[in-house]
Specification:
The complex is a heterotrimer of chains A (391), B (291) and C (98).
Chain A: E1 2-6, H1 7-18, E2 22-25, H2 32-43, E3 51-54, H3 58-70, E4 75-79, H4 81-86, H5 88-97, E5 102-105, H6 121-124, E6 132-135, H7 139-153, E7 162-165, E8 175-179, H8 183-189, E9 206-207, H9 213-245, E10 253-256, E11 263-267, H10 271-284, E12 289-294, E13 296-298, H11 302-309, E14 314-319, H12 329-337, E15 344-349, H13 359-370, E16 377-380
Helix pairs in contact in A: 1-2, 1-7, 3-5, 7-9, 11-12
Chain B: H1 15-26, E1 31-35, H2 39-44, E2 45-46, E3 49-50, E4 56-58, H3 64-77, E5 85-91, H4 92-96, H5 100-108, E6 114-119, H6 159-165, E7 170-175, H7 179-191, E8 196-201, H8 205-208, H9 215-224, E9 231-234, E10 237-241, H10 250-254, H11 258-261, H12 269-287
Chain C: E1 27-31, H1 41-45, E2 51-55, E3 61-65, H2 75-79, E4 85-89
Antiparallel strand pairs in C: 1-4, 2-3
Classes of the chains: A alpha/beta (391), B alpha/beta (291), C alpha+beta (98).
């Protein structure tokens, strides 16, 4: 059934279809409506065999899910920004404990200064944590990826927390047409959670042991191995899901015009839609520009990125975050995938804190790079002239 | 049937392990344990050296209460609630300081969890640092007795009142000096639905500076001086206290522990001892402890 | 030799049995079987769960320490209501003073 709905409802509906056993909620803009919609469904008895709780903080919410997941329950929560940072201690702990908690992160800028608007600074903070991370471009993609998140996270070869990133407000609150998933399709693709191991009095195991130096290293290697295996599991899940629902989202990355592009533009998240539109227009003008959309950010699909960018002379990365003291994190990671090659490399941090990135600006940034009017390296795009003062 | 140990790494004479064993035995091992980081966790859950014979989870320092809430919700959702009771073992630091937020949330939502605070009155696993439940005058490494200061100059946080204020059905204190009291209270808590808070006084041989032979006697003295009242609240009402036949002066408790010894020589020492006696007298009056 | 690395560091129950802590203490408890009333006070209070009341061949019950794990803390000695336990210094700590 096709409906024009806001992103937060698209997610909540998909979560309902994925049949989690425990949902822990805590409000934070702009994710709140996701858990509000789930609460409404819960209160109306639409979430079967599910326990919903409003926790005392995001830290509490994530910790509740650690206990629930270890007991064998399928678990879900949503957060962003300050909430994500607060629950980061627990999420890293969950990654090490190999608990498949699914989390929707409605990308929002970090304090200070306080901002409720969209950028990717929050999820970038957890790059190193051992969570699987994907970025979606549209509400339809967000809706479709929710059951996939559970399926991949709960795969016995993976067993890692899964963070589904969607741009706050830009997707969560935007009305877009969404083809709602059929319950049958989800049930076929995502069977009930069968944990490889769980806490039970029938087989009393000790979870969360501490590891002295003689064995800690091997646990971290095992975590890395799980991430490596997740690449293949994700790839397979993308393909399998395409066949079930008839919408082809591609694989870890989606490349357009990569064969003959002189300039390849790299983008992640909702900005990709506008960038694709601009590139189509530039193509019609005869400019040899291509687009690489990255969906899977962790595990990092270095091979797929390299294959897509190998023919380009120039690379332009649109960043939605900054690794302060260095440059944009996506650029850093893409460069590492291109090691040994030497294209010209440009990156622009745009739209921080929800700043609008108008079409004209995107056109200008791309054509400036294409026509060689800017220097290589890291830039901020769309910055107003300012002076640093004390008061 | 032991549900805990042996072969664990606790100091000889450790009060925590005495309390833990009695709690698990009172529940006949039919329980899930959520344990915060601390002495009990470190000595019992090394990889491939677990002393636990019941299902057990350790997550972080401050979230044992929230993890237990999660276990409760999962058992409810998965229709496995009769598998066993849920118990939290957390130290005084994890309870009164860093974990007080998640604890408050769990108590407020009245999850069916027995929360056991093992009170050895400091962050003992990291070497005796001051916590909210460290008593006045105690020598800890983050507020040591020096030329200016006589050890801790604050109060012992009244976690019992905080727990009672949450409106939970059962709150009690106990001590390893009275193991059958621990068992009775845990058994009672297991019969009640909702959140239960039991704070058990557990001497720490290393941190308090006593010998294993003084573990039980010091716990008994803590009770007999009225510095550690043993009380029981049901639905917010004080229903029972353990009476003291012959109250002892606080000096008898303080002088046998290295962590209080400085009070007998420090210039501010006598003032602190008098204050501790006043606290003890207040406890005795408030709970009507004297026979 | 290949190590076992379990999912998330899960351990089997009672895997601490391999840690024989019996060599920790300088003293060890000796139970006077005549005095012992098998009240189990020591059993309930031992921090390590290594003194247990067992039935002997002649049907009498008595407390028996497990020296594989006993750390010689002395708690059993302090709590025995029948005064049936004595703490003895281990042989290796008996030093001759010249």
């Amino acid at each position: 059934m096709r409906k024009v709905i806001r992103g937060f409802y698209a997610v909540a509906h998909a979560v309902k279809l994925s049949k989690p056993s425990v949902i822990a909620a805590y409000p934070i803009t702009p994710q709140t409506e996701i858990v509000e919609n789930l609460a409404k469904m819960y209160s109306n008895g639409e979430l079967k065999d599910c326990q919903y709780v409003t926790a005392e903080s995001e830290f509490g919410a994530a910790s509740i899910l650690v206990g629930a997941s270890a007991t064998g329950a399928r678990t879900f929560t949503a957060t962003c920004s300050q909430g994500l940072v607060l629950m980061s201690e627990v999420l890293l702990n969950a990654a090490g404990m190999r608990l498949p908690i699914v989390l929707v992160n409605t990308n929002r800028a970090l304090s200070a200064p306080l901002s409720i608007w969209n950028d990717h600074q929050d999820s970038m903070l957890l790059r190193d944590g051992g969570l699987i991370q994907i970025h979606v471009e549209t509400n339809q993609e967000a809706h479709d990826m929710v059951p996939l998140a559970f399926k991949v996270a709960e795969n016995p070869k993976v067993m890692l927390p899964f963070m589904l990133n969607m741009d706050g407000f830009k997707l969560t609150h935007a009305y877009e047409p969404v083809d709602l998933l059929d319950e049958e399709h989800v049930d076929k693709f995502l069977p009930p959670y069968e944990p490889p191991v769980k806490m039970t009095t029938e087989n009393p195991l000790t979870f969360g042991c501490y590891a002295p130096p003689h064995c800690y290293m091997e646990f971290r290697v095992a975590l890395q191995n799980a991430m490596e295996r997740a690449k293949g599991v994700l790839e397979k899940a993308y393909r399998e899901w395409t066949e079930v629902i008839g919408r082809d989202w591609g694989g870890h990355v989606v490349a357009d015009y990569a064969d003959d592009a002189e300039l390849m533009v790299v983008s992640m998240g909702s900005l990709t839609g506008m960038v694709r539109d601009v590139i189509r227009e530039l193509r019609e003008e005869g400019k040899k520009v291509g687009l690489l959309k990255i969906r899977t950010f962790r595990p990092f699909p270095d091979k797929e990125i390299r294959d897509a960018l190998i023919n380009a002379n120039k690379i332009l990365v649109f960043e939605r975050a900054v690794s302060f003291g260095h440059e944009g994190p996506v650029g850093i990671e893409v460069k590492s995938a291109l090691f040994g090659l030497s294209p010209e490399f440009y990156s622009y941090a745009v739209g921080l804190g929800g700043r609008d990135v108008p079409r004209e600006e995107i056109v200008k940034m791309i054509t400036d790079v294409y026509d060689g009017r800017v220097e290589q390296g890291f830039h901020f795009g769309g910055v107003k002239p300012f002076e640093e003062v004390i008061t | 049937m032991t549900f805990f140990g042996p072969g664990h790494g606790a100091c000889p004479g450790c009060g925590l392990t005495i309390a833990t064993r009695n709690v698990l035995e009172a529940l006949e091992g039919k329980c899930f344990v959520s344990n915060s980081t601390g002495c009990l966790e470190i000595i019992s859950s090394q990889y491939e050296r677990s002393a636990w014979g019941v299902p057990y989870i350790h997550s972080l320092f401050e979230n044992a209460a929230a993890v237990a809430a999660g276990i409760e919700l999962a058992l409810k959702a998965l229709k496995r609630t009769d598998e066993g009771k849920i118990v939290v073992f957390a130290g005084d630091g994890a309870t009164a300081d860093i974990g007080v937020g998640p604890l408050s949330g769990m108590l407020d939502r009245n999850h069916d969890v027995i929360y056991i605070c093992l009170d050895n009155e400091a962050y003992q696993n990291t070497g005796n640092q001051q916590s909210g439940l460290t008593p006045l005058g105690s020598n800890t490494t983050t507020m040591p007795a020096g030329e200016l200061y006589p050890g801790k100059i604050g109060r012992k946080k009244d976690m019992v009142s905080i727990a009672v204020a949450h409106g939970i059905p059962y709150v009690a204190t106990s001590s390893v000096a009275f193991y059958s009291d621990i068992r009775r209270k845990v058994k009672k808590a297991a019969e009640i639905e909702g959140a239960k808070y039991i704070q058990i006084h557990t001497p720490c041989v290393t941190g308090w500076g006593i010998d294993g032979k003084q573990t039980i006697p010091s716990a008994k003295l803590a009770f007999e001086t009225a510095l550690y009242p043993i009380v029981e609240y049901e639905n917010g009402k004080l229903i029972r206290v353990r009476k003291i036949k012959e109250r002892k002066p606080v000096e008898e408790y303080l002088k046998i522990q290295r962590r209080f010894r400085h009070l007998f020589t420090h210039p501010k020492g006598q003032e602190i001892i008098r204050e501790l006696q006043r606290i003890a007298d207040d406890n005795a009056a408030r709970f009507n402890l004297d026979v | 030799m290949v190590m076992n690395i379990t999912l998330g560091g899960i351990s089997k129950p009672h895997s601490s049995k391999n840690m024989k802590t019996g060599d920790w203490g300088t003293e060890y408890p000796v139970v006077d079987e005549e005095k012992c009333t098998a009240c189990k006070t020591c059993e309930h209070l031992c921090p390590d769960g290594c003194i247990v009341v067992v039935k002997k061949e002649d049907g009498e019950k008595v407390a028996v320490p497990d020296y594989d794990y006993c750390k010689g803390c002395g708690v059993c000695f302090t709590v025995c209501p029948a005064d049936a336990i004595k703490m003895e210094l281990k042989e290796m700590y008996r030093l001759e003073v010249c």
